């Protein structure tokens, strides 16, 4: 670690749980972020500011005026720009030493099979169940920890699924792919602007702990936030031995 890095990351280095060794692990880590919108914005900014060595951003959308109410990585001047490019510019403005790879296509199973295998930690910041299940399947296949976040209206949730641990469920254990869950979109249901910032920041925190080895992420715990009264609740999620995705893996 050079003098510039020692200064830039000094407040991390001062933490006993992190220190120089933990920060070096962050500098050498590769995070895969699926979605560069409401959740992906704070995730990208905090991972970049913390010095994650390589961040791969996957999103096929462009910045729209309606995004600016909550997607803090984007600006009015970048309306019409690819979200990955806009987010990469925001990261570079904070920390020009981070490598950002842009993937400007919608994530599918084939692409995720390649990208997840290369990453150290995966952050699901997307907004649809089909992609979420594809991300989860790839994480189970390649034994990569998955930090999953979701937010709609005033309700948010966060969970870490870690297939490296035999007791950890996967996303499909909790939300079975054949359950036929009805999609809820911000465009029709609305979303409280700070909510995505809170959940996205929590995702970044869990990912940084996974990369650095600091603290614990408590895999299999679903944390839910009710933004109406700012109350948190938790549910411990058991692994489903008959899960069609991770059952055989375990």
Commentary on this structure:
- The model has no long low-confidence stretch (mean pLDDT 94).
- The chain has a single domain, classed as NAD(P)-binding Rossmann-like Domain (Rossmann fold).
- It has 250 residues and is α/β, with parallel strands linked by helices.
- Helix 4 (40-50) packs parallel to helix 5.
- Strands 3-2-1-4-5-6-7-8 form an eight-stranded mixed beta sheet, with helices on both faces.
- The radius of gyration is 17 Å and the shape is globular.
- A hairpin with a 4-residue loop joins strand 7 and strand 8.
- The protein has helices spanning 3-8, 10-13, 19-27, 40-50, 83-94, 109-118, 129-142, 171-174, 186-189, 193-212, and strands at residues 30-34, 54-58, 99-103, 121-124, 146-152, 155-161, 221-226, 231-236.
Give a quick rundown of the structure.
The protein is of the alpha/beta class and 250 residues long. The protein is built from 10 helices and 8 strands.
